[in-house]
Amino acid sequence: MKHIETLLTEMTIEQKAPIVKILGLKSNDNKLIIEKLSKILLPVGGLWQTSLNYSQFVEKIASSNNEKIDFSLGIANAEKELYLKLFQQEFEKLTEEEKDNIYKELEKAGLDKSQIKSLSGISALGAAQLSGFGIYLLASSTLGAITSVLGFTLPFAFYTGMSSVISFIIGPVGFLVMGVLVYRSFKNVKSWDEAFDLLKASWNGIKAFAIGDTTRSTLAFKYFAATRIVLTENFRNQIEENTSKINIKKTNISKIDTEINDNETEIESVKNIKTEQSNVVSTIETEILKKQEELKSANNEISLLNDKISDFEKNIQEKINDRKLIETEILNSENDSKLKLSKIEQLTNN
């Protein structure tokens, strides 16, 4: 029962609730569900008998419905093959009028002709050739019908993981998957309670023979198979969505990397310009130092020249003073000579 154990670990409490009711359990413990499932097809509840593994369980359901299943590709393929063959078997038991009614219901549910053809093609093409959309449609319908009859309402998204093209389908298609007898009985009931009473009566009638509860186990099988299909499709859609988001993020990362590379290139360019300018500054600073030395030397020379000029000016001033002194002496000598001459002339005149 490893195949079922894996599925149960992926199911929520709400998704396991219908199978708990189908199997007549009071607990949703995975071990109890597996134990019940492994013995439900055995006479007298499997008392003193070896429990069935899931392959044997599927094989018994196939045998009781006169279907031959290929297990060579693994239990997952065998499960899907039997699930679709059971629908095909039930579908082919319908009258043309009943088939037309189902097609009309599908059209009311919002499916176009190509999508309806995908489902109706099962009777002409065979279960293995049914499109992925048709398989998902059958699975979502099965879950909707079973949970509604049992009085459960699973989250809407549980049935509609593919896209908005699938409406909430629980009517004729779903009840057809449960069985033509249930489908035909369902057409005449007026409430879900009546439908559940019919189903419950069917279970009790089968159990009275104590030969293994084929009806209940077949319904459990259909629920598990449909759940696996829906969950697988939903997970696949999540993966596609995540892949799309990851691709967008990778594109953004690529853009960021490009921008980083561009910025790094710009930085390198700016660094080169900075290096060039630094060299220019260094050259100018060297020239400034050289000019400062020249300026210092010139200032020293100017200082020396100023000292010489000062010495010359001082010397000139001394010479001017000497000249003035001599001029004064000359003037005094001339005046003295003139005075003496004047006195001589006066004496001569007298």
Could you give the topology of this structure?
Elements (H helix, E strand, L loop, with lengths): L1 H9 L2 H10 L7 H10 L14 H11 L10 H18 L3 H13 L4 H8 L1 H4 L6 H19 L5 H4 L12 H7 L1 H7 L5 H16 L6 H136 L1
Helix pairs in contact: 2-14, 4-5, 7-9, 9-11, 9-14, 11-12
Low-confidence stretches: 162-169, 206-210
Please work out how many helical segments DSSP would assign.
14
Major β-sheet profile: none
- Strand fraction: under 5%
The H-and-E topology, N to C, reads as HHHHHHHHHHHHHH
Question: In total, how many beta strands?
Answer: 0
- The quaternary state of the protein chains shown equals single chain
- The rounded distance between the terminal residues' Cα atoms is 179 Å
Quick check: average pLDDT?
80
Overall shape: rod-shaped
| Helix percentage | over 70%
The structural class is mainly alpha
Gyration radius, rounded? 56 Å
* Structural domains: how many: 1
